[in-house]
Amino acid sequence: MKSTKAIIIAWGLVLLMAACVQKAPIEQIEETQAEGKLEHEQLLEGDSTIYGLACEGCNDSVVVLLPGDGSDPVTYNIIDAHRHNRIKGRLKVGDWIGLLRNPVDSTVADFVIDLDELKGTWCYVVMPKWRDASNMTPQAQAIMEEKIPDSVKQSFFVPREYGFTLKRQWIAQSVGYVRRSSLEDQSPVVYPRLLYFTEWHILNGRLVIISRERRIKEGSNETEKTTSTLRYDTCDIDLLVGDSLVLSSDGESRGYYRRRNVADINKEARQKAAEQEQRALKR
User: Fold this and answer.
1) What is the pTM (predicted TM-score) of this model?
2) What whole-number distance in Å separates Cα of residue 116 and Cα of residue 205?
């Protein structure tokens, strides 16, 4: 009798452990939804991507996805997607992923991306360009009129690190932002404009990054309200492997590298900008 009870108890523990293992991915989805809007409320109009978690069984031939609604896992064939470089990132069990289902065969995925691997901070290096002389201040024109020795070039042509951070709940932020200074007009060089990123999304296999541009109404002061417009940049994801990302748009490509500490990047950017301001003052 005792042995029978022991067997029943042991079997109950096995069933309980199995239930916990199956419940974990669903709980992860529920936690994600609890942090903000539900998944379907955040999708861009026209997006056909299916989102969920990668389950045990993913390999080079198939991907097993637990849908965001918590329904049973679905297995998709990804052999052709691998052949055509349509698998972005290294799929890991438990990662948040997205896929595009083949319009003819619902058991085939034409595109798969590991969104957890895409998240993070991505940077690239920018260099300034000589400012258009017609738009320069007299001080800047005087510098340009010199023979531009190497020491001058080194003092002004300082690389900066730009980038963006992609977070959960489709939140994005700019990296390397430097507050504009009145002394910038005194510099003979000008840096590319860094966009103020706010959101990111996936749209049928492409990355969409949304930025907001704030403008003070003409004739108003800084204390009055500003107008803002949204800009949508849509890019092809050419490469996503570990710490490397390549995006392309309108025939141009840009490579990014992953950075871990955003605070260090912004601090270094402000420090370099301050050093350039000091050099401008001395001149």
Assistant:
1) 0.73
2) 15
Q: Residue 96 pairs with which residues in a beta bridge?
A: 53
pLDDT in tens, the chain (283 residues): 444 444 444 444 333 333 333 334 444 434 444 444 445 557 889 999 999 999 999 999 999 999 988 889 999 999 999 999 999 999 999 999 999 999 999 999 999 999 999 999 999 999 888 777 556 666 665 665 565 666 666 677 788 899 999 998 999 999 887 766 655 666 777 888 888 999 999 999 999 999 987 655 555 555 455 556 899 999 999 999 999 999 999 999 999 999 987 666 656 655 655 555 555 545 5
Within a 10 A sphere around the Cβ of 155, how many other Cβ atoms?
Answer: 17
